[in-house]
Amino acid sequence: MFQKIIFLIVVARFFRVYKDWRWPQPVTLKPIEEGTLGFRVWNPKTNIADLKHLMPVITPSYPSMNSTYNVSVSTFTAMKEEISKATEVTREIENGTKNWEDLFEKSDFFTNYKHFFEVNAKSKSPESQNTWFVISKKKNFFFLLLYLT
Known about the structure:
This protein is an all-alpha fold and 149 residues long. It has two domains: 2-114, Poly(a)-polymerase, middle domain; 117-149, no CATH class. The protein contains six helices and no strands. It has helices at 2-20, 48-51, 73-95, 100-103, 109-112, 126-148. α1 runs antiparallel to α3. It is globular.
């Protein structure tokens, strides 16, 4: 029983912190280190691309990078909505009016979001899968730019 209570406290705290976070202030576990190896680290003061990040979550190891660099306005909005929902559900679990199953109920993603695309790919070898993956990431980014302009 004690372990379930601690788990609930940690999960509820996670959602509350992220719900109230002052984005685009970065989430960091430790101070960002510049390092001596010459790798570029996440720094919105010196890199204009870093300045444009909406929801920066910075990796704790050198070189520090934004693990959420590809969050767009629409995904940012969707994530904030889902985090708010989860915050409310964890409050209700704490109050005893809901159960853990309610936090993990099936998503209504496909009814809420009309515009999305799904890509499935098969390859004959790991090497060709990797090549396809690299090419498709570039193409998907290109299609996204076309859609946004």
